[in-house]
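Summary for the steering committee. The consortium agreed at its last meeting that each partner would contribute one worked example illustrating the joint modelling workflow. Our contribution is presented below. We chose a case with several input lines so that the handling of multiple components could be demonstrated. No manual editing was applied between input and output; the record is shown as generated.
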Amino acid sequence: MSDIAQRPSQAAFESDDQAADLFRARARRLTMRRRVLPVVTILVLVLIWEAGVRYFEVPNFIAPAPSAVFAALWSRFPMFMENLTPTALQALAGYVIGNLAAVAVATTFVYRPTAEEAFFPLAVMMNTVPTVAKAPILVLLLGNGMEPKVAIAALICFFPTLVNMTRGLRAVSSQHLELMRILSAAEREVFTKLRLKNAMPYLFAALKITAPSAVIGSIVAEWIGSTRGIGALIIEATYNYDSVLLYATIIVGATFSAAFFGVVSLFERHFLKWNDRANQ
Amino acid sequence: MAKAVEIAGVSVRFTTERGTVTALDNINLEIADGGFMVLLGPSGCGKSTLLRVMADLIEPNTGSVKVLGAPPSAARQGRDIGFVFQDSALLPWRTVLENVSLPLEVGGGARRPGRSPRELLEMVGLAGWEGSYPHELSGGMRQRVSIARALVGDPKLLLMDEPFGALDEITRDRLNEELLRIWEQTGMTVVFVTHSIYEATFLGREVLLLTARPGRTRERVTLDLPEPRNAASKETPQFVKHAAYLRKVLETC
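What follows is the complete predicted structure of the assembly.
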């Protein structure tokens, strides 16, 4: 029975507290370094930028000093939040709608290959049209409210998730399918207990890619005739040569994007523990 | 004596772009209830195909198949067949216990009398590992889980497709001995596919030798070894003689 260790996980190791402490300390140090270094890099770059702007006396409308940008962020914070809200809501709504639609269509594709043959080329063609070109069309179709922005965000999310999810639902090992047949599992059970679970890592990869894309979609859609939102602020700042406002707006949008991505990553880590550890 | 498997005139052909391949050609085989039959042959001889015909995974083009006196589909739906795959085929997102419990969750398994997953894990020597994930186990342990899963439905026929082929020799020997112990305890019929002559000699009460392309029955050999079979059995003159004989036949397959 020696291919089995006596007790789960630790039995094969001697207990050497000192060595264990050293190992853990080293691991902690490496983790800290991984977290601290990028922050240091950014801080240094910002300082160089500040010094450069001051030294070369760069005019404000070409490139603002970081200190001016942060001052604007601080003093006009409520205004930024007011504009972030519609952008964020449109991005979130589009993200949910686009991804749900993609999962539904992927499921249809897996069970009805003729549907895939008929519609997948269409999805590819729609995806090749740039977002900036789709936006005006949708504004004409859906008016000037939130709808065209949500639609753009949803369209941006749709394609990556469709491709990944279709692949994930299909990439089931033939032995697992044989196993399900030996167990006389119903098609519904094969879907919920095998295909869907198998597709989860693929789905989360797509969910992570599409989270920032949905924000981009929402912002770009606001460029066409919006008065509120991060996209509208960007346009306004550009026309007024207000580079401080422009940079501050970009920081607000990017921070939201990063936070969105971070939340999805947290969900992934929570739901895909088995995959996380299996891939280490 | 009742027959666990009756196969008469079975042929299986696969058609691909490169033409039609005859995987099995006119196979006739009867396996007695409670027997231990090893299917041995070079790769491509159709032994896995024959196993899949018994499991109702492949429908033969011609011939008739009966498992426990009924069509294979009936035996499958009645959970009379257990199957152990070559690479264990555990679901990576399920713990050991959840994997073993899978047959109780799907295909109406909840309504059937089954064996307790925990007891089976104990029987295969994995008590204490219920909460582990497959990737945390060694290959041998994964195959033990897979055997426990195959036994949950309390099958009368256990089909094993080169289950220990990917394991190191020491682990393989040990699992071979344990398989014999489980076989004796349960009294079920086992059909075991391998390409290892030593494994075949050690396990098989009977060995069916198959030839490759097309898969045909070459010879059916009955092996007598002193019981109980254990590590010492491999040093007996009979063992050496049987192994040498199987090798000789295989060389001409």
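The CA atoms of residues 125 and 268 of chain A lie 30 Å apart. Chain A has two domains: 15-57, 66-278.
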